[in-house]
Every structure is written in structure tokens, then in C-alpha cells.
Design goal:
Elements: H1 9-20, H2 25-32, H3 36-46, E1 47-49, E2 53-54, H4 56-70, H5 81-91, H6 97-107, H7 118-127, H8 132-140, H9 174-177, E3 184-191, E4 198-204, E5 210-214, H10 220-231, E6 241-244, H11 253-260, E7 263-266, H12 276-285, H13 300-311, H14 323-341
Parallel strand pairs: 3-6, 6-7
Antiparallel strand pairs: 1-2, 3-4, 4-5
Length: 342
């Protein structure tokens, strides 16, 4: 039969009666529209002994006990060390289930009881009973969705800016495209309610390190000033290039390029995937800077704290090291190389 389902209590009762009457397994199977092998397995599995034979009520109890034993016990049980650690990292550090799972494997390589897959964490969150704890767990996720589902994105519109041929992304050097050297950034703006406020985002392509820039407005002057203020805090070797979209807020890019001694490249129109690192970070930032809110309320100190939270999250692409660790390693290597050269 194409669709198999377990014997019902009624079928077991009929099986018991006909078996006691001496009917064969094949005739019982035909009567119940079951295969003979199903009837044979049921009799062999749940018959008590040769004297008393098959009992439907006893078989039913044995069936339910067997089903209970076959159910896999949950890995995340409240008030256990593993559950408490996962809950703390999820709700207080805002780590993703993938980051939590990878870090547990890294910290407890030989303790299977302290490891859990990211899918199990998601299952625990969404299968949790309704209440404040579940609400807090769901809100701690990147997208804070009440249900899991495919991601969707709206097509972004880009205004054109004046640029030279060598500033097009297709002419960007291979060391930038392949993330070989540090110091190459992707930039963008996160816009607040009614386009009245914005925050600048800068992501270093090799390490994934994030810097956030407070902007007075979305005007070209304020955007340039905001980016320059944060970029000037970086050492020269970490200020080599920026890749941006063609929004009109970057119309003063020649001045910024000169002031920072930094090359500026531009992605093709309607091609956000060409700045994938920045687009991904922008999505994560919406957990802290929700759409439809006034972003002017956040000080530069607030933005630095948000950037620190993201920079200290372990990343799968970096073998669950953090952008902060990678950037510190870059700075340390540069200091050592300069010391040796002098």
C-alpha cells in the first residue's frame, strides 16, 4: 500500500477476535485491507504468550509505550546548563542560532551534551509556549519574525552621480574584489522615518569590521562630513578605498576622496549584491535601528555601542572568530611589521 498508518484500536479489536476464531493472517489482512506482513508483525510484537495469545488492550498499551520510547528527547531543556547558555547568548548578546551553535562546538569540542545545532535552537524558539520568554527570544533574532520563512527584499532605487570610468566597480583592482588586503570598505546609509534621518554604515571587506557614522542629515555635505569624521580615526593603511552605490548623497565624493586620500568606487545601478557585505550588515542593524524610527535620537556613542555588539559576534565565514578579533590582529601585525622595518 502507498500510504502506511498504524493500526487503530478498532482494528486491533477485530484482529484479536478473528485471530481467536482461528482465521489466518492473510484472511485477517484482507478483511482489514492490510497486508499479511502487517498482521504478522503485530501478532509477533504484541502477543503476550502462547497460552493467552493476542490481547487488543495489552497491545494498545505496549504500542503507546513503544511510541514514547521512540520519541527523541529534546536537547534544550529549561534549567539545564546548555539551555541557560543558549538563552543568555540569544537574549543578552543577540547572537544568531548559527553563531551560538558554532561557538559551542568551538568551546566544547569533546562534550556532546554542550553542543546543539542551530536548527534545534530555532525549533526551541518557535515551539516555545506563548508568553514573554518566547516574545523576548523571537525579538532577539535578526529579523524578529514570528515565523520562519524565505527572506524577501525590495529593489532599491539609485540616483546617479558623476564618476569617471576608473571609478566603476568593474575596474576595481583584484586585491579589492578578492578581499586580499585590508583597508577596503563598503559604504551605505540606513534611512529613518520619512527620509528625515540617516546613519552611515561602513564595513571593511576582509574582516567584516563595522563602523557607524552619525549624520546630521542626508544632504551631500552632511554625508561627506559624517563619513570623513569616522574614517579619519583610522590609520592610513586601513583607509584605501570605499565602494558605494550611486545615490545623490555621494555627489561630493571627489572632495571626500581628496580629504581622506582614498579611492572611491561605485557599484552599478540597481545592483545591491555588488556590496553584499554592507547589505547584509544593514539588515542586521535593523534589529537596533528599526525602520520607521527617528535615527537622530541616537548619539555617536549609541552607534559605537551597536557597532561593538556586531563586531564582537562570532561569524561562520571566519570560523566563528569575530570581526573585532580579526581587526585587532591586523593592527597588531601592522605595528610589528613597522617595528621590524625601523
Amino acid at each position: 500500500m502507498s500510504n502506511y498508518y498504524h493500526l487503530s484500536p478498532e482494528e486491533r479489536a477485530i484482529l484479536m477476535i478473528k485471530h481467536h476464531q482461528g482465521h489466518s493472517t492473510r484472511s485477517i489482512g484482507r478483511f482489514l485491507n492490510r497486508s499479511a506482513s502487517t498482521i504478522c508483525r503485530e501478532l509477533n510484537r504484541n502477543s503476550t504468550n502462547k497460552d493467552s495469545g493476542y490481547c487488543a488492550s495489552t497491545a494498545g498499551r505496549q504500542y503507546f509505550q513503544s511510541r514514547k520510547r521512540s520519541v527523541r528527547q529534546p536537547k534544550l531543556i529549561p534549567n539545564t546548563p546548555l539551555y541557560d547558555k543558549v538563552k543568555a547568548w540569544l537574549t543578552y548578546k543577540q547572537w544568531s542560532p548559527m553563531q551560538i551553535s558554532g561557538t559551542l562546538k568551538r568551546l566544547y569540542p569533546n562534550q556532546s551534551d554542550m553542543q546543539v545545532s542551530h536548527e534545534t535552537i530555532y525549533t526551541c524558539i518557535y515551539a516555545h509556549p506563548k508568553g514573554e520568554l518566547k516574545k523576548m527570544m523571537v525579538q532577539s533574532l535578526r529579523r524578529a519574525k514570528s515565523k520562519r520563512g524565505p527572506r524577501g527584499s525590495k529593489t532599491s532605487n539609485y540616483n546617479s552621480v558623476k564618476l569617471t570610468e576608473d571609478q566603476k566597480i568593474e575596474n576595481r583592482p583584484v586585491e579589492i574584489n578578492d578581499r586580499i588586503l585590508e583597508g577596503h570598505w563598503e559604504g551605505d546609509l540606513i534611512v529613518g522615518s520619512k527620509n528625515q534621518s540617516c546613519v552611515g554604515t561602513l564595513v571593511e571587506r576582509k574582516t567584516g569590521f563595522l563602523a557607524l557614522c552619525k549624520m546630521a542629515s542626508k544632504s551631500a555635505l552632511d554625508v561627506r562630513t559624517g563619513f570623513e569624521l569616522q574614517m579619519k580615526k583610522l590609520p592610513d593603511f586601513l583607509r584605501l578605498s570605499m565602494t558605494y552605490d550611486r545615490g545623490s548623497e555621494m555627489s561630493q565624493h571627489p572632495i571626500m576622496s581628496q580629504n581622506l586620500d582614498m579611492k572611491v568606487y561605485f557599484a552599478d545601478p540597481h545592483s545591491p549584491w555588488q556590496r553584499g557585505s554592507n547589505e547584509n550588515i544593514n539588515g542586521l542593524l535593523r534589529q537596533y535601528l528599526p525602520k520607521g524610527t527617528d535615527l537622530k535620537q541616537h548619539s555617536q556613542g549609541d552607534l559605537d555601542k551597536i557597532a561593538w555588539l556586531l563586531n564582537t559576534r562570532p561569524r561562520k565565514r571566519y570560523e566563528f572568530r569575530t570581526p573585532q578579533e580579526l581587526m585587532e590582529s591586523v593592527l597588531s601585525n601592522h605595528i610589528n611589521s613597522v617595528a621590524l622595518a625601523t
